[in-house]
Recover the amino acids of this structure.
């Protein structure tokens, strides 16, 4: 029993010793940390902090200390812009179309007996080129019959003319004065009937010969065959579709323009088609009539350009778009360095008149809200609505928003800009 009690007393003593050692360690660490801290409020001038305080510069009396939270001014890129004169450019979009789009129909009925090798879709044919033939047997017979009818009618007319002369001679020999009581005496109605019969026979011959001519189907103009709707041996009725053809002498592009775009065009262009021959006027002011078109969308033609001219303008406003259009023309489109085909979507750029008192700015200078931001002499931001007259090659041409000789126009306005905000302008070249 004594041994057990002695063992417990030794164990409790060991626990107390460990606890006292740990407490001492905590006290030593706390004392060390306290020695590294600055002096308290009542210890000014003691310790390392006092040395730091002594090196701070003195500030003049009455001047507030600078705040560490002072806001830095934002830098904005600006362009020094002066008023200049620029030639306007009007840009529009349209689709190339042939001058003529013909659904070729048959004038007669018959069976196709021959087709030309060139009579295939996609082929280019010349005016008057023979494309197909119809069976002409019945038409040859009709011509022969018409010729016989003409000969018979001419003979009847000659006979009637002879009988009329004989009747007048007999009337004169009779000794009667005046004119006969009836025109039948001198055979005048019979003569008129014979003349009408001959004229009718001649018209019938003309029709028969025309129908015989229509048995040969020929190209009505220089064109490209879009589709062929007949086959060898097929029978076609009057008015039946033979083919679809597009003319290839020139391409036309209808370009709808807004009122603002029309205002940038020369007066001569706006009046084209109103009793004015555009081709004649073009000799006097070629620059005003010039236009450049380039293909859009297709990878095979994108970037290719062609020269065109304004041929006429529409003297009406379209009901669906409420816009008026002008028509551009490209002569001999398939003979260009890069052929221009019907159905190509193009962008047209038309040279306009020279406009004075404009700013030339990068497109980025116009904000999403359609505003132009400037920086005044005091470095304050100002904004105005951008009145854009035209655009060209990533540049916009706007009416100046202030009277300064050199305006500081912000090149890339931000959405957080506010009128009157103080900024630091940094000049960049255009």
């Amino acid at each position: 029993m004594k041994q057990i009690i002695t063992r417990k007393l030794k164990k409790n003593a060991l626990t107390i010793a460990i606890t006292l050692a740990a407490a001492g360690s905590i006290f030593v660490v706390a004392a060390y940390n306290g020695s590294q801290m600055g002096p308290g409020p009542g210890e000014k001038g003691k310790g390392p902090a006092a040395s730091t305080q002594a090196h701070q510069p003195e500030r003049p009396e009455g001047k507030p200390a600078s705040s560490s939270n002072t806001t830095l001014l934002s830098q904005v890129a600006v362009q020094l812009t002066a008023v200049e004169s620029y030639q306007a450019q009007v840009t529009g979009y349209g689709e190339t179309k042939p001058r003529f789009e013909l659904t070729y129909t048959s004038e007669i009925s018959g069976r196709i007996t021959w087709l030309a090798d060139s009579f295939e879709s996609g082929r280019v044919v010349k005016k008057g080129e023979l494309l197909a033939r119809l069976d002409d047997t019945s038409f040859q017979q009709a011509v022969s019959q018409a010729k016989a009818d003409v000969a018979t009618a001419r003979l009847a007319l000659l006979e009637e003319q002879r009988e009329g002369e004989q009747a007048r001679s007999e009337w004169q020999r009779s000794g009667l004065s005046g004119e006969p009581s009836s025109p039948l005496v001198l055979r005048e109605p019979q003569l008129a009937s014979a003349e009408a019969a001959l004229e009718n026979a001649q018209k019938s011959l003309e029709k028969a010969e025309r129908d015989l001519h229509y048995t040969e189907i020929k190209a009505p103009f220089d064109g490209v065959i879009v589709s062929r709707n007949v086959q060898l041996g097929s029978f076609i009725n009057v008015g039946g579709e033979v083919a679809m053809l597009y003319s290839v002498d020139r391409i036309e592009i209808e370009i709808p323009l807004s009122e603002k775009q029309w205002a940038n065009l020369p007066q001569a262009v706006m009046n084209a088609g109103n009793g004015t021959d555009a081709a004649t006027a073009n000799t006097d002011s070629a620059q005003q009539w010039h236009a450049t078109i380039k293909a859009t969308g297709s990878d095979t033609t994108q970037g290719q350009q062609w020269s065109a001219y304004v041929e006429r303008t529409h003297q009406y406003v379209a009901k669906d778009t409420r816009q008026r259009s002008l028509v551009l023309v490209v002569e001999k489109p398939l003979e260009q360095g890069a052929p221009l085909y019907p159905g190509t979507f193009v962008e047209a750029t038309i040279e306009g008149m020279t406009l004075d008192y404009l700013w030339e700015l990068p497109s980025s200078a116009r904000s999403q809200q359609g505003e132009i931001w400037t920086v005044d002499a005091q470095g304050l931001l100002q904004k105005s609505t951008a009145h854009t007259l035209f655009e060209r090659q990533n540049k916009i041409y706007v009416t100046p928003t202030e009277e300064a000789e050199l305006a500081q126009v912000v090149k890339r306005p931000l959405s957080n800009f506010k009128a009157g905000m103080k900024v630091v302008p940094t000049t960049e070249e255009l």
In short: The helical segments are 2-36, 47-54, 137-173, 188-213, 259-263, 267-270, 278-282, 286-289. The chain has a mean pLDDT of 81.
